[in-house]
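Hypothesis: this fold can be encoded by more than one sequence.
Test: take the structure tokens below, design a sequence, compare later.
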């Protein structure tokens, strides 16, 4: 049954504040799950199962599905729809408050989700900045955010650097707003992120790397020498020495740097007197 009819039957109105745009097109659901290339032994984390449309397709393709939903009003709908799938566990809580590795009880799980768009960046942070990262993420998100994730030097942002430090993002397909109900005001895309076992750049301390990146992006459109100086509390000689030992022109701006250049700057901070 399509989500609109299901919700009406249970007298539930979709909440915009929870990013509730439900996928109703069976082809779109199948294509998203195909994109994940799941193996029969996989464990999947779904964020926001909603009325269970994607959950049902996932349950047929993986050994186990754990779905975390914030909205308790959807409990009877999910219970009814997923009654025949003993491999599905629904947990009613906020994904941002969830200890995901403890919940998943396994390494190398896969995340497949049509995420609530208002917390896309926060979800990426919770899942990626974690020692026990998923092996792959297949996330339907706002197209504009998807494009920011795959940005190249000259258009980089903290979000792009953070995601590309942990994995390789690519846009698998665009999704037409007409396959959702209610129809969202923005275009959507499915992004795959395959995570790395070790970071793609030579950094011994990820926390230090992110301190440097945050400082660099701290002052919008400022040259690196100013942004790093104020963000890392360095004087102008120290900032000049830092950039020189990393081989980077201090007049450049944060959005132009490659991951390798951020790593070089991070390594150079360890040499500062
Ligand atoms: N998976 C369903 C589908 O594709 O039709 C629903 C996707 S809808 C875009 C996002 C879902 O995330 C909603 O069911 C919403 O209630 C849920 N959600 C919103 N905020 C959440 C949070 N903080 N933690 C867990 N789920 C959340």
């Amino acid at each position: 049954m399509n989500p609109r009819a299901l919700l009406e039957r249970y007298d539930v109105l979709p909440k915009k504040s929870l990013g509730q745009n439900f996928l109703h097109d069976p082809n779109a659901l199948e294509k998203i799950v195909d994109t994940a290339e799941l193996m029969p032994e996989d464990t999947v984390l779904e964020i926001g199962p909603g009325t269970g449309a994607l959950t049902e397709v996932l349950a047929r393709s993986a050994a186990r599905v754990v779905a975390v939903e914030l909205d308790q009003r959807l409990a009877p709908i999910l219970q009814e729809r997923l009654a025949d799938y003993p491999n599905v566990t629904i947990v009613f809580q906020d994904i941002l408050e969830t200890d995901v590795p403890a919940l998943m009880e396994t390494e190398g799980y896969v995340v497949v989700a049509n995420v609530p768009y208002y917390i896309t960046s926060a979800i990426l942070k919770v899942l990626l900045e974690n020692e026990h990262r998923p092996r792959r993420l297949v996330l339907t998100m706002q197209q504009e955010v998807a494009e920011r994730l795959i940005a190249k030097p000259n258009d980089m942002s903290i979000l792009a650097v953070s995601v590309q430090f942990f994995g390789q993002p690519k846009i698998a397909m665009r999704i037409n707003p007409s396959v959702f109900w209610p129809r969202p005001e923005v275009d959507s895309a499915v992004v795959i992120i395959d995570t790395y076992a070790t970071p793609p750049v030579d950094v011994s301390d990820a926390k230090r790397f992110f301190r440097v990146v945050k400082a660099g992006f701290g002052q919008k459109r400022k040259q690196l020498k100013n942004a790093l100086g104020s963000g890392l509390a360095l004087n102008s000689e120290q900032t000049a020495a830092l950039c020189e030992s990393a081989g980077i022109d201090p007049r450049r701006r944060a959005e132009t740097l490659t991951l390798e250049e951020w790593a070089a700057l991070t390594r150079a901070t360890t040499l500062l007197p």
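The chain has two domains: 3-195, 206-269. Residues 3-195 form a domain with the Rossmann fold fold (CATH 3.40.50.150).
Hypothesis status: open.
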